[in-house]
Amino acid sequence: MTDSVEPASVQGSVGQGSVVQGRGQDKRKRLIDAACQVFYAHGVERTTLADIAAAAGIPLGNVYYYFKTKNDLIQAVVEAHLSEARAMLAAVEAAHDGPLGRLKALFGALADQSELIATYGCPQGSLCTELDKLPDGPGRAAELMRLPLDWAERQFSALGRADARDLAVEVIARYQGSAVLASTLRDPDLLARESARVAAWLDTVSA
């Protein structure tokens, strides 16, 4: 394996080991970022490790140092999506004091990515669809979808709704459904229109 990164323990000084370890983490992150992008654009099944290595600018042989199999890399991509979703939801909570504003902001974030979503679909939704085709994928897909669903349920509960789970299912279904329609029809404006309709619907739900 050429240009491989050796563990810090065989690098000599602690300082050298830390530098090499940092470079190794950087390459690993580059591979995960590249995998997220290529999976999103071309799908999980169609993408090879060679495709990801090329997108990351890293020799294919080096990929196996960080990820022994494509399945290992898929799991890292799922974790990256979960981390990104948690960060996004935390940012929404920090920016809005009340649950109604947070729920509206969730849909607003979808509209803000309208051009990208109209081309490729929702990043999380598209990945869930791809994962569902893999032998051990459905469980991972459920984990990705459960995160925003549970979050939305907490917001509706904070609004005093006894049917919080049902409302959460409805809002996430509308979120994902509008992304699918916008992508299928190549209509980014559809997301803005649906976002406005959902905002009006949320006002009636919280009244």
The percentage helix is over 70%
The named CATH superfamily of the largest domain: Tetracycline Repressor, domain 2
Q: What is the tally of beta strands?
A: 0
- Which structural class fits the helix and strand makeup? mainly alpha
For the CA atoms, what is the radius of gyration? 20 Å
CATH top level class name of the largest domain:
Mainly Alpha
Identify the quaternary structure here: single chain
The global form is elongated
Give average pLDDT, whole number.
86
What is the rounded distance between the termini?
63 Å
CATH topology term of the largest domain:
Tetracycline Repressor, domain 2
Q: What's the architecture of the largest domain in CATH terms?
A: Orthogonal Bundle
Number of domains: 2
Number of helical runs? 10
Beta-sheet strand percentage? under 5%
Overview of the molecule:
With 207 residues, the protein is an all-alpha fold. It has 2 domains: 68 residues, Orthogonal Bundle (Arc Repressor Mutant, subunit A); 130 residues, Tetracycline Repressor, domain 2 (Orthogonal Bundle), CATH 1.10.357.10. The protein contains 10 helices and no strands. Helix 1 crosses helix 2, helix 5 crosses helix 8 and helix 7 crosses helix 8. The longest helix is centred in the N-terminal third of the chain and has 29 residues. It is elongated. The N terminus is likely disordered. GO terms for molecular function: DNA binding. Pfam families: TetR_N (PF00440).
